[in-house]
Design brief:
By secondary structure, the chain is α+β, with helices and mostly antiparallel strands. It has 3 domains: 241 residues, Rossmann fold (3-Layer(aba) Sandwich); 59 residues, no CATH class; 287 residues, paralog of FGE (formylglycine-generating enzyme), CATH 3.90.1580. It has 13 helices and 27 strands. It has a 6-stranded mixed sheet with strand order 2-1-3-7-8-11, with helices on both faces. The chain is elongated. It comes from Desertifilum tharense IPPAS B-1220. This is Peptidase C14. InterPro entries: Caspase-like_dom_sf, CTDL_fold, Pept_C14_caspase, Sulfatase_Mod_Factor_Kinase, SUMF_dom, SUMF_sf.
Length: 638
């Protein structure tokens, strides 16, 4: 299990600086929280009221305590060391300093402690997760001008130290008498506790950015105080600070980072990230366990030169295959404040190239239900924002899936299933916006089957009516949103893994000859399957991807917002729909994703793209349906 150590320092009664009121109490509350709620193994608190004078926060005592703790800790990958300081901080000649109890503002270099020195000492403890929390720009310092932050920010970026700052460099960090607390520390403890449930750096950053100004307004103050966070490299933003509040999506983000590091050959970083996954899952994630074992073999047993089979002993170590690069880690993105959401549990599976199940896991996702009337609801699943590599890597996919490119997708909600015939009928009853809708257009009848034989313009009318009824921003997904949601952090052709079987999805599992070409009913080394020749009810296959979405591979193609382009040259990188069509011969064609019951497995891959005529209303499109998304703003209340 991971080690969790911390030091908390709070100074009120400075010898040579204006005294503070609640800094010591800040440190005391942080210590209490870390010990009782966060389950830290050891927390050292230093204050001027400590009975043991060696714990008084003088310069000598702080440096000595840090060195001894760093030497004693003997930490490693996945371990955490937090440093919390509440008191005065002062910049001097381009360097940032924390002022100890005996700090002299007239002799800063000699009497203060450079934050860079603190960071270097903490780095020596061996923990790969060092968290610096500085409530150290307190109002009332003798030196005017900018507060600390500039040099420490750059240092944090270079060293990978996660740093939380109570305010911007040109601001003060305020104490609130009514709270008997520094406003930043108040928000920090709220965010880390059950009130905020901020399991990750990313979510805590969002909470602090919103909550600190809110608390200041609540107490009638006119001050400006804007906290900020530095978490670089980007993977640090997904560090799980408090595992007990971690969601499936949080752990998925860590897995994404681990896959990326492993793909790029940075095995030591990948090992650290997988260890974090294992810690966050309580030691039960089989994928992490296997990855750590494989990386350990690769690190300690380098691949041998290939030899003819008869010359290689069966016990010889073999080179590990690297997964193809397909995912990059999500950055810190402001996720919406979600209220009124429910949670549901689901099963997920991973298969190998032969289609054999290698892992079965439980997942949990957040969602809301839209009441469509007559007992019919629409389940909308929360999809956390992130960054991924859209398209196929070299060696996989068609030319129109290239070039693989980085896309950042804001958070949104997506239909748990494709829109069903029951849901279509309810919305078709709503007041017309632009065009009439047939109440029962599908060829394969069934209330819980996906609706099909609907044009792109029909889906536009559907989402417009739904948005008007619900007062929310409903629409089709962009192509980038669709692929991001389908992949759900995976780096493989399917979210199930290296291949797919007809036990997991509805597609043509038999060979198919079309226009003289044979299309295989299997993918990779998986066996062929069955061909159902019709749609199946949504959720018929009782397994979802890591976001909690069903039927992303097969059953029906799904309309997207985007015009069709022959490749990704010039494609947007912000998750938006690409609607400025520059292909003169494709003016009326839009993107389809996901494959269908009619098509073979290669066409159901996460990255596969197809297109259809936007003007086509009827015809042989009993293979085309859709699912909707709902925009998630800064605040969202279903």
């Amino acid at each position: 299990m991971a080690k969790n150590w911390a030091i908390a320092i709070g100074i009120n009664k400075y010898n040579y600086l204006q005294r503070l009121h609640y800094a010591q109490q800040d440190a005391e509350r942080v210590q209490t929280f870390l010990e009782r709620e966060a389950g830290f193994d050891y927390v050292l608190r230093m204050s001027e009221e400590a009975e043991d004078r060696s714990f008084h926060p003088t310069k000598g005592n702080i440096r000595r305590s840090l060195r001894r703790l760093a030497e004693k800790a003997k930490m490693g990958p996945g371990d955490n060391f937090w440093f919390f300081f509440s008191g005065h901080g002062i910049p001097e000649e381009g360097c940032d300093y924390l002022m100890p109890l005996d700090g002299d503002p007239d002799d800063i270099k000699e009497s203060a402690i450079a934050i860079s020195d603190i960071t270097n000492i903490l780095r020596g403890c061996g923990a790969d997760n060092v968290v610096l929390i500085l409530d150290a720009c307190r109002q009332g310092g003798k030196k005017a001008g900018k507060g600390i932050g500039d040099q420490t920010t750059e240092m944090a970026r270079q060293t990978g130290v996660i740093s939380f700052f109570s305010c911007s460099p040109n601001q003060y960090s305020y104490e609130i008498p009514e709270l008997k607390q520094g406003v930043f520390t108040q928000a920090l403890l709220e965010g880390l506790s059950v009130q905020g449930r901020c399991a990750t750096v990313e979510r805590l950053n969002e909470y602090l950015t919103r909550r600190v100004p809110e608390l200041i307004r609540e107490h009638g103050k006119q001050h400006q105080q804007t906290p900020y966070t530095i978490a670089e490299p980007v993977s640090k933003s997904h560090l799980i600070l408090l595992p007990k509040y971690a969601t499936t999506a949080d752990i998925l983000s860590l897995k994404t980072d681990a896959f990326e590091a492993q793909t790029e050959g940075n095995l030591e970083l990948a090992e650290q990230l997988w260890i974090r996954v294992l810690a966050a899952s309580g030691g039960s994630d089989l994928q992490a366990i296997r990855a750590i074992q494989r990386i350990g073999i690769a690190l300690h047993h380098p691949p041998i030169q290939a030899k003819p089979a008869h010359e290689v002993p069966s016990s010889a170590p073999v080179a590990l295959e690297r997964p193809q690069k397909s995912i990059t880690p999500p950055p810190v993105i402001a996720t919406p404040v979600k209220s009124g959401l429910k949670t549901f549990s689901f099963d997920g599976v991973t298969v190998d190239k032969k289609g054999k199940e290698t892992e079965r896991r439980k997942g949990e996702a957040e969602y809301f239900e839209e009441d469509l009337g007559d007992g019919v609801t629409l389940a909308m699943v929360y999809i956390p924002g992130g960054t991924f590599m859209m398209g196929s890597p070299e060696g996989e996919g068609d030319h129109d899936e290239k070039p693989q490119h980085r896309v950042t997708v804001p958070p949104f909600f997506m239909g748990k299933y494709p829109v069903t015939q029951a849901q279509w009928r309810q919305v078709a009853k709503l007041p017309k916006v632009k065009r009439d809708l047939k109440p029962d257009p599908a060829y394969f009848k069934g209330a819980d089957r996906p609706v099909e034989q609907v044009s792109w313009y029909d889906t536009e009318e559907f989402t417009a009516r739904l948005a008007q009824k619900a007062g929310k921003s409903y629409r089709l997904p962009s192509e980038a949103e669709w692929e991001y949601a389908c992949r759900a952090g995976t780096a493989t052709p399917f979210h199930f893994g290296e291949t797919i079987t007809t036990d997991l999805a509805n597609y043509r599992g038999t060979d198919w000859e079309y226009e003289g070409k044979i299309y295989s009913g299997s993918y990779a080394d998986a066996p062929k399957g069955i061909y159902r020749e019709e749609t199946t009810p949504v959720g018929y296959f009782k397994v979802a991807n890591a976001f909690g979405l069903y039927d992303m591979h097969g059953n029906v193609w799904e309309w997207c917002l985007d015009d069709w382009h022959n490749n990704y040259q010039g494609a947007p990188e912000d998750g938006s729909a690409w609607v400025n069509n520059n292909d003169n011969d494709n003016q009326s064609r839009v993107v389809l994703r996901g494959g269908s019951w009619l098509i073979n497995p290669a066409y159901c891959r996460s990255a596969f793209r197809d297109n259809y005529d936007i003007l086509e209303r009827g015809g042989n499109n009993d293979i085309i349906g859709f699912r909707v998304v709902c925009v998630a703003g800064r605040t969202f209340n279903p």
